[in-house]
Amino acid sequence: ALLDLDSGAILPFPRLVSLKNKAIEVIAGEVPAARMGPLLGATAKGDIRHLVPRADAVARMGEGGMPALLLFPRFGSGPAERPVGQGEVFMRLTQASTNYVALGEPAFAALTRFVAQVPARAIDFPSGEAAIALVDRLWSEIG
C-alpha cells in the first residue's frame, strides 16, 4: 500500500505475491489457476510460485481510503493479538518503506500523523481460518 503524504489516505498497490513451499498449495486451492505463476522448484529458498493480483484490483488501484487499523501479522502461533505502541509502529514502517529516506521531511510528517491516528495490533495465528476470525473480531471492535 502507498500512503498519500498530504491526505493520509492509503492507496492500494497490487503486485505479485511470492509464495513459498506449503503456502503454494494452500493458496492454489483457493484461487483460479490463471492467478498462479509458474513453479520455480528447489531454489535456495525452496519452491517458489507467484500469485498474480486480480485484474479488478489493478484496475482500481487509484481508489484509496482512510486507514482505520494497522495489523502486523505473524503466522505460526496463537491466535493472539497485542497493541503495538507508536514508537514500534513508526520503526517498523520506516524499515519496510522503500522511499522513506528519499522523501525526507514530508515522509516523516505523514508517517508521524499516521502513527498518531491509526491504532495498530500485532496478530499471531496458526491458520488462515484463525487469521480471518481474528481480523473480523478486531474490525468489529473498531466498527
From TrEMBL:
Keywords from the UniProt entry: Kinase, Transferase
UniProt keyword annotation of Transferase present: yes
Molecular function terms from GO: kinase activity
Protein name, per record: HprK-related kinase A
Taxonomic lineage: Bacteria, Pseudomonadati, Pseudomonadota, Alphaproteobacteria, Sphingomonadales
